[in-house]
Amino acid sequence: MGMSYLIDTHIFLWWLFDDPQLHTDSREIIRNPENRIIISSASAWEIATKYRIGKLPEAKQLVEEYSQILHKSKFIELPITTVHALRAGSLPIDHRDPFDRMIMAQAELEGLPVITYHAAFQTGLIRVISGLK
Question: How far apart are CA 103 and CA 79, in angstroms?
C-alpha cells in the first residue's frame, strides 16, 4: 500500500516537462502507481498567473488542458478550503509567496508530506521530501 504526497508547483512542472532537476527518488515516488499524488488548487492558480505574466510561456497547453492533464497523470486535486486559507494567512513564517504558503498550510492541515525543492518549506510544521537533484 502506497502513501499520499502533496507536490509543489515546481515539482509538478518538472515532472510534466521531464526536467532533469527532479530528483530520482522523487520521480520514483511520483511514478509509483501505489502512491496518491496530490496537487493543490493553488498550483493551477500559480501556473495560470505565471503563464499570463510571461514567466511560464511553455505552460500554454497546461493552462488550456489543466484538468485533462491532471486526470491523465492520475493526480488528485486538493481544493482550497476556508480552513486552508485561514491557516495559510496565519502561518508563523517569514515567507510572502501566497502559493507556497497555501501548499504549506494544506500539507500541515491534511497531514501530507510535501515534495518540494524550496527551502522555505523547511518550517518544522510539515514533513518535507527534497525534490532537488
Answer: 11
- CATH code, 4-130: 3.40.50.1010
Per-residue pLDDT reduced to its tens digit, 4-55: 999 999 999 999 999 999 988 999 999 999 999 999 999 999 999 999 999 9
**Cell triple for residue 61?**
497547453
Which residues does residue 7 pair with via DSSP β-bridges, in sequence order?
Answer: 39, 115
Q: 90 vs 13, 21, 72, 111, 127, CA distance in Å? A: 27, 32, 34, 17, 19
Sequence-distant (6+) residues with CB within 8 A of 21 are: 14, 117, 132, 133
